[in-house]
Design goal:
This protein has about 90 residues and is mainly alpha-helical. Helix content is about 50%, strand content about 5%.
Length: about 90
């Protein structure tokens, strides 16, 4: 969702979908638990860390699936203590 949101046209949408498919990424479903956890993150961190709904869903998905999350923009994610955050510099 986050990657598609950044696309500016249908050609870029296709490139994003092809990238996900070509590299064998798994697309995880949005579950009730993820939605609930994301809501809690927005309530707790929106004001202090500027966490938006999309970022909260990404963080909640990683936590609920016990997966690390990799981001170059870690500012709003550092507050989520249970998140296995891996920061990279592009």
């Amino acid at each position: 969702m986050e990657l598609l949101q950044g696309a500016k046209n249908k050609a870029q949408h296709k490139k994003v979908k092809d990238f996900i498919s070509d590299f064998g990424f798994s697309v995880l479903p949005l579950s009730e638990n993820i939605g609930h956890r994301a809501l809690i993150y927005v309530e707790e961190f929106a004001l202090s860390s500027n966490m938006r709904a999309g970022d909260a869903i990404i963080a909640a998905t990683a936590v609920e699936n016990n997966l690390p999350m990799v981001s170059s923009n870690a500012k709003q994610f550092k507050a989520v203590k249970e998140l296995q955050l891996k920061v990279f510099k592009p």
